[in-house]
Amino acid sequence: MTKHRTGTRKEWLAARLELLEAEKELTRRSDELARRRQELPWVRIDKKYRFETDEGSVSLADLFRGRSQLLVYHFMFGPDYTAGCPHCSAIADGFDGFVVHLANHDVTLSAVSRAPLAKLQPYKRMGWTFPWASSFGSDFNFDFNVWFTEEQQREGVIEYNYRRGGHAMDVTPVPEAAGEGPVAELAATTGTDVPTYTRERPGMSAFALEDGVVYHAYSAYARGLDGLWGIYQWLDRAPKGRNETGVWMRRHDEYDKR
After folding, report:
1. Which of 119, 130, 152, 194 could be stapled to 115 by a disulfide with Cβ–Cβ 3.0 to 4.6 Å?
2. pTM over 0.90
3. Alpha-carbon dihedral of residues 182, 203, 229, 25, nearest 10 degrees?
4. pLDDT tens, position by position, 49-83
5. Exposure string (b/e) for 80-101, b if CB count within 10 Å is 16 or more?
6. CA-to-CA distance for 94 and 173, rounded, in angstroms?
7. DSSP H or E segment with residue 28
8. What single string gives the DSSP state of each residue in 101-147?
9. Strands 132-134 and 107-113
């Protein structure tokens, strides 16, 4: 027998209609938030960032690929990693398929990671076709708060998700210090330890290009990325929700090994 509350179809419909009103309100609030995002002031970027891509060395403006808007996913793949972050890999599985549709809306979506291009290219064995640039050797990840130095980490002066603190992933359980727990498990999948793994962070940034000038329009981090996880949108509608226990997310090429 299920432990979940049960009822008649009439009771279900009454509860569903009540929930529908809350869902509609959330949709209206989401529309309003989208409008406010688009109204944020743009910040001109004068720094000359360089990236390595399959097409060669390029500027930030070149990443737009002839379009006026650029969305960057800050993919956690540091120079010391042997594989990409499983969570970032799962997000990439989701957006890989609609990159072409964004392009038809004058938007280029590109991943950017600090690992050298020679490490990123083989990792595309995951079957991805989206543009992926290496920012190795530049300040791009540091300037957009998705990479931190060892000194910042030791001194606890990391500023991530618009907060300052020295935590690994906003909250770091004590066992992580001993190499145990979910963050340590994630670190191990990338061939690193907790400090090395958590100096990289996930995020996304939006840029606009007008008259040859690049502007920073928006950035989001941590749970601000939840809406970009296609899998979360489906799980949130499943009977048991996200049902997360430990490190439940894996790269899709790892499922056959379980």
Report:
1. 119
2. no
3. 120
4. 999 999 999 999 999 999 999 999 999 999 999 99
5. bbebbbbbbbbbbbebbeebee
6. 29
7. helix 9-38
8. HHHTTTEEEEEEESS-HHHHHHHGGG---S-EEE-TTSSHHHHTTSB
9. parallel
